[in-house]
Design a protein that fits this description.
- The protein is built from three helices and 55 strands.
- The protein has 642 residues and is mostly beta strands.
């Protein structure tokens, strides 16, 4: 990429019991930890903090109280977690030190719209409005003699069920605010129309990240309002909010826990498995493990431990697992086994007071991440042999909130955190500073390189790069990531990359090489970078590809071009070189007509594939992938419209 294209590159990346006594032997004082990298992740939020739940506006989490200032110019609320926020522009919320006032006594009324409804009278000058709060919101123009419902439509509440509080502005009797299980709602016309005020309120009751995003896969999370648990999905491009979906992932987990509860005769609240190893956790620090797919079980008790909140089994080593526990009677809150559950040792160390809700780890580097009431922490330990607990450090850059879940992507490159109220955040996993990795720059996959293609080096600022006698231009570099281009002249079956870095001197990383190794550019939410050829707009869930239209796919790794083109030079704006190898594109496994496949004008290492959508398509998502020289890209999803 040329220097002038750096900004455009960045834009595209945004768019890219006896046992417990014996276990004491395994609990030693703090071991000498490896030096931890100076981890300052560059966090980005995935999605927002509201749910598109088919209500009057996007919904939020539970709000218990709502009230106006004495002059009516400030609106306050108290969330289900007890935090207080205020707004003076009725759009943007900030944390507040105000205390919730006592609830007002209900106003006397000749009648009630429903039993136990709380009646409020407007104190605004000249107003005679009466309002009532029950299962719905009601208004009366005759001082409570007759009532009309303001929030029920065809038997459904347009602001959600579970209403908790109502406030009338002291300035205007027609201005009211209502707090409920689905956020805070405001009306300026006496309840005729309603608008949610949840978009900037950090109150999404996020409890777990059910699935991390990737190529063709959207993020899924679990939210909880009271006893109600729901699964939501963030569809890239659908900016209104998280979308409720069928709870397929949570339903499967619930069924597994129920199965093990029946087998063990005690309540199982967490479980995980890998190969033949199965782990289960219960209340009061109970843990069980099985090495034969659940036919026989071994019990373990974490003395003083709370309920087991989650269990994480390390990829590639089913005998190693981490169990996270709620706060108990001073016992361990994060324990580890390296022998399939025979013993669990305490690695809580200096984690702050409060529950540990979840953990994730990378086997190679020994990096462990813990989601706690006090935020997200990490340490480095030996995950292959018995070792003492090591000190934990808090990862900076995230909002001050409880972290309820933490996950790594399948390749261990990206770290995801679910924060109560604030949503899902992602960044390059800090352990990449300990173990750099070369990935495809388009989709962060680990695949072969190809002549002319783009690679990213995670965990290092690269100053120069060579492969034998070939020099690889460094197109962009930060302390966390660098982009390089494979020379068009590269040949053979592998590249022996020799990288000079600013922090670790010389670094040698081998990479397989193929004639073609196609990859479609995706943003970090997993949405492919596909454009409408005529309009030049990015296609997503809100702007689907039209039947019969031409679309342009941004890719890399398509190999050599004709005529030959210099490595490290932006492609010409006119008549860009075409791809030498045959390129095929498939939509739901049907081959599309490829109009052209060239270098992308004005860019380095980007390829542009223009194809034609069939005249007849089904509405909704469709699978798209590129194939060249027998190699295929990852499958991604694009949205179609008839």
């Amino acid at each position: 990429m040329c220097p002038g294209a750096t900004g455009r590159w960045n834009r595209y990346r945004e768019i890219i019991p006896l046992l417990s006594a014996l276990a004491v032997l395994f609990i030693s004082p703090l071991a000498s930890a490896q030096p931890l990298p100076d981890a300052r992740p560059e966090w980005r939020r995935i999605g927002n903090t509201v749910v598109d739940g088919s209500l009057a506006s996007p919904a939020g989490g539970p709000v218990l109280r709502v009230w106006y200032s004495e002059n009516g110019f400030v609106l306050y609320l108290q969330t289900g977690s007890g935090k207080v926020y205020e707004t003076n522009d009725f759009e943007n919320w900030i944390a507040s030190s105000a205390a919730a006032p006592p609830r007002l006594a209900t106003t006397s009324s000749p009648t009630l719209p429903e039993s136990a409804a709380q009646v409020s009278r407007s104190t605004a000058p000249g107003s005679t409005q009466f309002y009532a709060l029950g299962k719905a919101v009601y208004a009366s123009q005759d001082r409570g003699t007759t009532w009309i419902s303001l929030t029920q439509f065809r038997g459904q509440s347009i602001i959600g069920e579970g209403l908790n509080d109502l406030a009338v502005s002291p300035r205007d009797g027609d201005e009211i605010a209502v707090a409920g299980q689905f956020g805070v709602w405001r009306s300026m016309d006496g309840g005729i129309t309603w608008t949610g005020a949840n978009e900037t309120l950090p109150n999404l009751p996020l409890r777990r990240l059910a699935r991390t995003p990737g190529s063709g896969v959207s993020a899924r999370a679990v939210i909880q309002t009271g006893d109600n648990v729901a699964e939501v999905e963030w569809v890239a491009g659908h900016k209104a909010g998280w979308i409720p979906v069928e709870p397929d992932l949570t339903a499967t987990e619930t069924a597994v826990r129920q199965r093990w509860s029946e087998t063990l005769g005690l309540q199982v609240v967490a479980s995980a498995s890998s190969a033949d190893f199965v782990y289960a956790g219960g209340i009061g620090g109970r843990l069980w493990s099985s090495a034969d797919s659940g036919r026989t079980w071994r019990p373990f008790y974490v003395a003083g431990g709370g309920n087991v909140e989650s269990i994480h089994v390390l990829d590639g080593e089913p005998r190693t697992a981490l169990a996270s526990l709620a706060t108990g009677d001073g016992g361990a809150r994060l324990v580890r086994t390296i022998n399939g559950g025979l013993f669990w040792d305490d690695i809580t160390s200096n984690l702050p007071p409060g529950s540990v809700h979840a953990a994730a780890a990378d086997l190679k580097t020994g990096a462990i991440y813990a989601a706690t009431d006090a935020g997200l922490f990490y340490t480095v330990n030996d995950l292959r042999a018995a070792a003492g607990a090591t000190p934990w450090l808090r990862l900076p850059g995230l909002p001050e909130a409880a972290a309820y879940d933490v996950k790594l992507d399948a390749l261990g490159n990206q770290l995801f955190a679910a924060l109560d109220g604030h949503g899902v955040f992602a960044a390059m996993a800090p352990h990449r500073f300990l173990a750099p990795r070369v990935v495809n720059a388009a989709d962060y996959s680990v695949r072969a390189a190809a002549p002319g293609g783009l690679l990213s080096v995670l965990g290092r600022r690269v100053a120069s790069a060579r492969a034998g006698t070939l020099e690889l231009p460094v197109l962009a570099a930060t302390d966390a990531e660098s982009q390089i281009q494979v020379p068009f002249e590269a040949a053979g079956t592998s590249l022996e990359l020799a990288l000079t870095t600013s922090s670790a001197g010389r670094l040698n990383l081998p990479v397989p090489l193929r004639t073609s190794s196609p990859a479609i550019f995706t943003d970090r939410d997993g949405m492919p970078i596909v454009l409408d050829a005529d309009l030049g707009v990015l296609l997503d869930a809100m702007t689907p590809a039209r039947a019969g239209a031409r679309i342009q796919i941004l890719a890399t790794g398509l190999g050599r071009v004709v005529p030959e083109w210099p490595t490290g030079l932006a492609a010409p704006l006119e008549n860009p070189p075409r791809v030498a190898e045959t390129v095929r594109v498939y939509l739901d496994r049907a081959q599309l007509r490829v109009i052209r496949a060239t270098l992308t004008p004005g860019y380095i290492g980007f390829y542009l594939i223009e194809v034609e959508i069939p005249d007849i398509v089904d509405n909704g998502p469709a699978e798209l992938y590129v194939e060249s020289s027998g190699e295929s890209s990852a499958r991604v999803s694009i949205y179609l419209s008839r």
